[in-house]
Every structure is written in structure tokens, then in C-alpha cells.
TrEMBL record:
Gene3D superfamilies: Nuclease A inhibitor-like. This is Nuclease A inhibitor family protein. It comes from Fibrella aestuarina BUZ 2. It comes from the Bacteria. Residues 1-20 are annotated as: Disordered. InterPro entries: NucleaseA_inhib-like (IPR012489), NucleaseA_inhib-like_sf (IPR036587). The lineage of its organism: Bacteria, Pseudomonadati, Bacteroidota, Cytophagia, Cytophagales. Pfam families: NuiA.
Length: 148
């Protein structure tokens, strides 16, 4: 008798997303992305399978956004620098969080190629870091930053 798993009936193109979530979700525990409002980070999956880099139009289509919603791509480094840089004034908690973000970054670098970061909105901004797993549609992370 086999041991059925929760995703044993999932289509093949959804299993990589499940594998990604299984490997990344434990790294997100108690991890908040800092801005004017520290926000949790969650795993996100898409149906986007194209070989070429994603565009703002792809993101708007995927999220079903009206043309009036502002979307921009930003360098991946701009996503990581604020959370992986250890400042001289950091206490133990801040250092531990920076190390946790560094571990998350290294894991994403191993699991995903062609990573891209998109910001959606103006003041309360959804941030998506998406990349290609070994097979299947793009997956990644989503968080929110507040900028007033």
C-alpha cells in the first residue's frame, strides 16, 4: 500500500510549486519584511510559464489589474539589501532576522532561476519576487511594503 500525500492527485505542472512551498514555507516563520508596516511574507504560485523574462503587462494580466494600477520592476538586489545587511547597531534579534533572510535568499537562488521583482501599487505596495523552478510555472514570494 502506498502512502497517499495531499498533492498526489495534483497535476504535474503544480507539483514543482508544491515542492517550492514545502522547502520555503518553514523559512518564512516569524519573518516580517520591514517598511512603515512590517508585513509577513508568503509563498505564491502563478500560471506564468513563458521562457522570456516577465513584463509589467504579464504581471497586470496575471493579477487581473486595471491599466490604472501602477506596476514596476525593480532590481532583485533592492529587495534583499534592506533585509540581509547587518548594521553595526543591530541587536541579537535583528542579526538573527538578517541571517534568516540570508538563508531565504540562498534557498531561492538554489531553487529558482530568472528571478524578478515587481512592485504593484502606490502607497500599500504588493511586492512579488518570482522565478522559474526546475519545471512548471513561475513561483515565488509575496509581501507588502507601506510607503507614505
Amino acid at each position: 500500500m502506498t502512502n497517499p500525500s495531499a498533492d498526489s492527485n495534483a497535476p504535474d505542472d503544480q507539483k514543482p510549486a508544491t515542492d517550492f512551498a514545502t522547502q520555503v514555507t518553514p523559512l518564512l516563520t516569524d519573518l516580517l519584511y520591514p517598511s512603515e508596516s512590517d508585513e509577513p511574507i508568503e509563498v505564491v504560485d502563478t500560471y506564468l510559464k513563458m521562457a522570456e523574462p516577465l513584463t509589467v503587462s504579464h504581471i497586470k494580466d496575471w493579477l487581473m489589474l486595471p491599466p490604472s494600477v501602477y506596476v514596476e520592476e525593480m532590481p532583485e538586489a533592492d529587495f534583499w539589501v534592506p533585509v540581509t545587511t547587518i548594521e553595526a547597531w543591530f541587536g541579537d534579534d535583528e542579526k538573527a532576522q538578517a541571517h534568516q533572510f540570508q538563508q531565504l535568499k540562498e534557498t531561492l537562488e538554489k531553487l529558482l532561476t530568472d528571478r524578478q521583482v515587481f512592485r504593484v501599487g502606490d502607497t500599500e505596495i504588493d511586492v512579488y519576487l518570482l522565478g522559474k523552478p526546475a519545471e512548471g510555472p513561475r513561483v515565488g514570494l509575496k509581501t507588502k511594503v507601506v510607503e507614505t
